[in-house]
Design a protein that fits this description.
single chain; 228 residues; CRO Repressor; three-stranded antiparallel beta sheet; 9 strands; 42% helix; elongated; binds zinc ion
Amino acid sequence: MDLDWNKLFIGDLDFSFALEIIIRTLMMFSMVLLILRLSGKKGVRQLSLFEVAIIIALGSAAGDPMFSKDAAIVPSIIVFGSIILLYRAITYFAMKSEKFENIIEGEPIYVIEDGKFVLGVHKDHTFAKDEFFSEMRQESIEHLGQVKTAILETTGNISFYYYQDDEVNFGLPILPKPYKKKLYQLTEENIYACTYCGNTEKLQAGYHSCSRCDQKEWVIAINNVRLT
Ligand SMILES: [Zn+2]
């Protein structure tokens, strides 16, 4: 293959254009900062999908004029202005109408209720169990029986509401080691948790289907209180 290395790396770059790129970048970067300040957002820890879309749109409008000779600055500024107007308008209508807000931002989803997974939550493709377990571990949760309610927020964050220590039930362990000890054939009487829905049952030795979701995979349930 005959590859033109000079064209690949340098193109029609010369010293004066290199200087121009630096100036263009400084200007566009300041513009982006200014626009983000005007948007009223305080930080980016919790971005909804709508806000991510805004950031992507800003980024692509800002990127081209940084290094492209043909792209002037002013059209980009017009794009910025339009984006910020759109952002303001959409947030305004989202504030006015809950229905509109749900369409734009999505809705919070109940993931855990009364120490068990809400049935059907696994079918939602936005719900990844591994990720969810990892989030729970970061909150020092050891098993589902410690959690009264968990809600997946539209920002992707999860809000947890716990049982009091004396209300903690038996639940599905979520630490990797006990969770991996999955059983189909139970060898002794014990309290077991369904790995699929978190339902707990006192079961004899043998094969059993979960009375709640009909799956057949169990782990030994635990009922430790949550230490914080
Ligand atoms: Zn189940």
